[in-house]
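Write out structure tokens for BatD family protein.
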Amino acid sequence: MKFVKNILAVVLIIVSSFAFAQVKFEAKVSKKKLGVNERLRIDFEMNRDGDNFVPPSFDDFTVVGGPNTSLMNSYANGKKTYQKTYSYFLAPKKKGSFTIKQATIEIDGEIYKTFPVTVSVTDAVDRPNGPPDASDIASEKIHLVAEVSNSNPYLNEPTTVVYKLYVSPDVGISSNWREKQTPRYNDFWSQNIEIKGLNIQRGEYQGEDYRFVVLRKTVLYPQKTGNLKLEPLVLDITVEVPTGRANIFGQQIMTQVPKTVTAGSRTIKVKPLPEKGKPQDFKGAVGDFNFEVTTSKNQLNATESLQAKVEVTGKGNLKLFELPKLTTPSSLEVYEPEHKENVRTDLNGMKGSISDTYTIVPQYRGKYPIPFISFSYFDLKTESYKRITSDEIIIDVVEGPTAAENRSDNTSIANTKQTIKPNSNTFAFIKTSSNWSSIKEDDFFKSTGFWSMLLLPFLAIPLAIIIRKEKDRRDADVVGSRIRKADRLAKKYLSEAKKNLGQKESFYEALERALHNYLKAKLNIETSDFNKEKIETLLSQRHVDQNVSAEFISILESCELARYTPITDVTMQNDYDKAAKTISLIDKQIR
């Protein structure tokens, strides 16, 4: 009996060890029944690490996210537990019953397969069935809002739209977000306000505490009346949602959910300017302005010049109207004016000055009046039209001919006849003799210099052929030349970023500076001119592929957001490699 008990104990140990070492690879779905407007999460879980994972085809679904990979190691009662998961997010294409086929993976040289999973897709539902999943939580905790300062402005009255991304403290967002759709402001004059860094702020959204960042600030001046539509800003982001589980260190395990968030379209109702009291010389100026006409000097001599400046200063749509024209007497010669703008734009609109400077040259002595000029504008504070009139300016030309003297001089010159005395030696300037002397030298055609110059081109022909062949060979290797040049450029601009790998702040500052310096060198634009729309437009004009441009923009956005989120060394290395690859691609494609 004792021998039998020993045998049974050994068998139990072997069976338990085999059960413990058994490989598990299975597919799990977030729900077996869902509406056609819902999303399905499917996880492929394994308890041993494997290679060559092959997902099913998902023919009846659209993959909207994934694969996302998560790892979990835990210890309980001295035993180690390992779990690796590949997650996909699926949107059903239609209603019906659908089977998700097998996934395969290779573990320790063996091929393992999951069982097929059948799900039922019903009519669209208002809310998901059962408790909310990670996708539902992400939808409730992330909000993109467009805040419009004035939804009922006058024509050419400034209004601002500020885009804010509100994030609940319960969730987070990763750095790999991008703009899926950029708003276009048809029927508006628009100016983007530069945002230096994405500063995380505290605020409230619908009565709850949220964190938010300002993504865009834009000043708009409506150019037509009526209901004008603002196209929405749409973002693709990855939301990190807590799973309710903790790792061996007690830290919350997060799952990543891809989401598309939109600010929605907004409508601005633009009022026309009143017709009552509108001056005849009104040119469309709206705001609060000062107006003056000045001259560099009021007294000068004939044929000297002076400058007359017509200037408007203040706050309003300075770039969107014409200045009144300067009128002068016909006796003053006036050149085309030089137009200057000194305008800055912030969230309150345009401020500064615009001017036309005329160069005036008087021809005759006398006093010449420059008549007054009037400037009209619509004052938003009083909602009425106002007119400013300049003073009359007298130009005193103290020295020079008068108009009457000029006519008299012309008449006398025309009527005066002079007696011309003929010159008997008319051709005296032509030499009729020379002092040349004859010289005698050896025959040049028999000299060493002659034969050297004759034979030298023939001797140079073989050398020229060799040089030409080498040049043709290098010119023919267009791809190789571009690759070498692109790689050199990437190393040149990214050298500082590479030195700071592992130091998050320093690395992303150097990476962002490298990207800006590269564009400044290639596109000849200043840092103050940088915005995403301009970069995309300029790269498109230089025949750079749209996907490459989008990749470049996404790297810049990652640099901005990475300063405020945890980043690993692997992520920094990936961003560095992506930047080097993108610079090389742009340099190969740009023309």
